[in-house]
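Question (not urgent): is this output format expected?
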Amino acid sequence: MGCLLKGGGGLYPRLRIGAVLLAAGEGRRMGGVVKGLIRLQGVPLLRRQLIALSGAGVDEVVVVTGHAQDAVEKEVLGFSVTLAHNEAFAQGQESSVRFGLAQLNGPFDAIFIMPSDQPLIAADDLIELIGAFKKRAAGHIVVPMVDGQRGNPILLDDEARGRILASGTNLGCRHLIEREPELVHVHATANARFITDLDTLDDVKALAQRTGWRLELPQASASAAA
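Got this back:
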C-alpha cells in the first residue's frame, strides 16, 4: 500500500541554481601564485570546483577571470561554462562578484558565490548548503558558520542578487552578518571543509602535511600569463 504525503511530505521542489566561480585574483599573499591553478593530487582546484558544481546539479556557471586569464581559461576547457573576463579585477573580489552576477542569464532560485581556493569542497558540501537554503525560515543569503568562523561558498537568492547589483552591498565583507543581518541565514555546521582555504604558501604546506596529499604550485609562467 502506498504512502500518502501530507503537505508535500517535507519534500522540496528542485531549484534552478547558478554559480559564480571566482578565478580572477592575483594571489598577492602567495607571491603571485594563481590559487585556482594549484594542483591537489594532480587536479587543479578550478577543475575540482567545477566538478563539485556539476555534481550538485548547478544549472549555469560563470567563471570570472582576470589575472592570468589565458592560463585559467585553458584549465576550464571542456566544461560547459560562461567565461567572463573582468578587466577591473585589480579592484578586488567585490568587483568580480558583481561582474559575475551580471553575466548570469535569467532568474535563479539560488546562486553560489564560490572562491576557487577551497581544496576540499565537493558536491556533497554544496548539496548541504542547498538543503539549508531550502529549509531556511528567513534571509536571502545562506552563510556557513563553523565554530564561529564564517565559511564559503555562500548561497544567495535572486532578490539578493538584484540588491547587490543595484546597491553597495559587499559580499566580500567578513562583517556582513553583523552589518546586514536581515539578509543572512547562518547555517551552523561542523563541516570544516567550508573554512579550509589556501590563502598563503603556509596554508598549502599545512594542508599537505595534515592530509598527506600532493599539492603542487603552478609553474611561474602559468601564474604570470595575462
